[in-house]
Write a structure and sequence with these properties.
The complex is a heterotrimer of chains A (227), B (163) and C (164). Chain A contains nine helices and two strands; from the N terminus they run H-H-H-H-H-H-H-H-E-E-H. Chain A has three domains: 7-94, no CATH class; 131-189, no CATH class; 192-227, no CATH class. In chain A, strand 1 and strand 2 (202-203) form a beta hairpin. Chain A has a two-stranded antiparallel sheet. In chain A, 68% of the residues lie in helices and 2% in strands. With 163 residues, chain B is mainly α. Chain B has helices at residues 2-5, 8-26, 30-52, 110-141, 146-159; strands spanning 63-64, 87-91, 94-98. A three-stranded antiparallel sheet of chain B has the order 1-3-2, with no helix packed on it. In chain B, strand 2 (87-91) and strand 3 (94-98) form a beta hairpin. Mean pLDDT of chain B is 80; it is low at 68-92. Chain C is built from six helices and no strands. With 164 residues, chain C is mainly alpha-helical. The radius of gyration of chain C is 24 Å and the shape is elongated. The relative contact order of chain C is 0.12. Classes of the chains: A mainly alpha (227), B mainly alpha (163), C mainly alpha (164). Chains A and B meet through helix 1, helix 2, helix 3, helix 4 and helix 5 of A and helix 2, helix 3, strand 1, strand 3 and helix 4 of B.
Chain lengths: 227, 163, 164
């Protein structure tokens, strides 16, 4: 893999640098706005903005497939899902007491400082010879041209070389869909049942499992009274 | 120029990770917690894509070598001076320009892209499960604030009745 | 004297014709856009070998076209256009198509998910395999995304708007 290193040392062009710096700064601003905001609607919308900005950043770093997915999934579908979940829940989040903030802040700052300490050992941005860019990842480019012969290396790796990975992921998506359908129901009626044994209407409100102890007694008494 | 810039992305990734983690820890609202989890998740995506970037590279979509292919019937010696000196891999009927010595084409690392591509879709799957759980919690407890949920649980355990 | 009256009548007739629907512009535009979005999803799916794109992106875009339809025209209309019973078949069909491709490779004497024996040579086999696998991804992702949206969308909130 020293062959790649032998290629001419290309310098970053200024537009790439400017894009990178400004988009990442925008991401930080949006993230801090998410932390400070209390309106859930604002949080969900900023979430979409955050995804869209990061998709633009992905394009500037050559990850076009990732950007495409982030724009479609992060900014599109997950915003819609969070909006519809917010409609079923609350619109505002209550303020957090100070003492709880301090504990969380201490833990987060500790983790952040530990990671900042390790930053110096990371390869420089865009390093051709970094370990991550030297072995298997770059081999896929040459192998795709020979063995699979489709131009998009990402698709080739996704569907063929790492087919197991993708299969597992399709199963994950399948089970996530299954889980949501079990929790909410395809027609939105999971956990909301109603039955009429012997002409008596029972549903999840009057059921013994849903109500407290006293309620159970009243249901029993009702049943006895009816009988 | 790249001296001060070389670690900038990592620092931003760490700041974003801290914001996401702080939102998950400090917020008591379940939907806001999930939003913080997304911020945290995206910071990991940024880390991977940063590592996979090759300076001067281009997206890992191989450039077809039209100068030597017979698809366009242009012949081998038509004015394709841009592609001179590149390596030709002519296996089968397609030829692509690959990086190598003497080649002025560089591709970014496709492997982090694949990993993150799958992670994004798994992220929306887990997000939807979390939201569905939040909706069910809201229906039972009438609130999605953790404090109030814990208080309701405490009362229930103490008195044996739902509030 | 009759002038303002006729003017009012004309306005009434106009608003009658358009309907009192404030979203008429959205409806007209989205009716034009939704087929294009679905078409773009299939372009992304089948052009994924040559450019950015693939099953995941195409699935989400295809689901987004149905979700847009549901947002504009209502969930009951969307359920007529994309019936919920398709979801059960679709979710499983995609996973089976993906896993079935792998099992077919096993039967043909290769490893699981090694597509080399599917075509006349190994390169054609890889192309067929990637096509089948991406189709499975497309079907699963589309139906799961639509299923999740249907589940959230048809859940009735228990509290009224005044409670918020």
């Amino acid at each position: 893999m020293n062959l790649i290193a032998a290629a001419a040392e290309p310098a970053f062009v200024v537009p790439v640098l400017l894009l990178d710096i400004s988009l990442l700064a925008l991401l930080v601003i949006v993230a801090i706005a998410i932390v400070r905001m209390r309106s859930l609607f604002g949080i969900v919308m900023l979430q979409g903005v955050y995804s869209l900005v990061s998709a633009a950043w992905f394009v500037s770093l050559d990850a076009v497939d990732v950007a495409f997915t982030e724009a479609a999934v992060g900014a599109g579908v997950s915003t819609v899902l969070m909006l519809s979940a917010m409609l079923l829940a609350d619109r505002k989040s209550s303020p957090v007491p100070m003492r709880r903030q301090l504990g969380a802040l201490a833990v987060v700052i500790l983790a952040g400082v530990a990671m900042l300490y390790a930053v110096g050992d990371m390869p420089a941005f865009g390093d051709v010879n970094s370990p991550a860019n030297s072995y298997v990842g770059m081999d896929f480019i040459a192998k795709t041209a020979e063995e699979i012969q489709i131009p998009n290396v990402v698709t080739a790796v996704l569907a063929s070389y790492r087919g197991y990975d993708t299969f597992g992921e399709v199963v994950v998506i399948f089970s996530a869909g299954l889980g949501v359908l079990l929790l909410l129901g395809l027609n939105g009626n999971a956990g909301r049942w109603e039955a009429k044994p012997n002409g008596q209407v029972i549903n999840d409100r009057t059921a013994p499992s849903a109500a407290g102890v006293e309620d159970t007694r009243t249901v029993d008494q009702k049943a006895e009274g009816d009988a | 120029m790249s001296d001060w810039f070389s670690q900038y992305n990592y620092i931003v990734v760490i700041i974003l990770m801290m914001t996401g983690l702080y939102t998950v820890f400090a917020s008591r609202n379940l939907i806001k917690k999930l939003a913080g989890l997304s911020v945290f998740q995206t910071s990991v995506f940024l880390l991977y894509i940063t590592i996979g970037k090759v300076s001067g590279g281009q997206p890992p979509i191989l450039i077809e070598d039209k100068g030597y292919g017979d698809d366009y019937g242009s012949g081998g010696d038509g004015g394709h001076s841009l592609l001179d000196g590149t390596i030709q891999v002519a296996a089968g009927d397609a030829a692509y320009i690959l990086p190598g010595p003497g080649s002025d084409v560089l591709y970014s690392n496709p492997l982090p892209h694949v990993l993150i591509l799958t992670a994004i879709v798994v992220g929306v799957a887990t997000l939807s499960i979390g939201l569905a759980l939040t909706v069910r919690i809201r229906e039972v407890y009438r609130t999605i604030e953790e404090d109030e949920i814990e208080a309701a649980d405490f009362v229930y355990n103490l008195e044996g009745t739902a509030d | 004297m009759s002038d303002p009256n006729t003017k009012l009548d004309a306005q009434d007739a106009l608003s009658e014709r358009i309907g009192s629907d404030p979203h008429v512009l959205l409806r007209v535009i989205s009716k034009f856009l939704i087929p294009l979005i679905a078409l773009f999803a299939f372009y992304v799916q089948f052009h994924g070998d040559y450019g950015p794109g693939g099953g995941f992106q195409a699935g989400v875009i295809l689901a987004a076209s149905v979700i847009l339809y549901a947002l504009i025209f209502g969930l009951t209309e969307a359920k007529k256009a994309f019936p919920p019973r398709l979801i059960r078949y679709g979710m499983t069909l995609g996973v089976i198509l993906y896993g079935g491709t792998g099992v077919l490779n096993l039967i043909l004497g290769d490893e699981f998910l090694n597509y080399s024996n599917l075509g006349k040579d190994s390169i054609a086999g890889q192309h067929y395999g990637i096509l089948a696998v991406e189709l499975g991804v497309l079907i699963t992702v589309t139906t799961v995304m639509i299923a999740i949206f249907y589940a959230f969308g048809s859940r009735q909130p228990e509290t009224s708007d005044e409670d918020w």
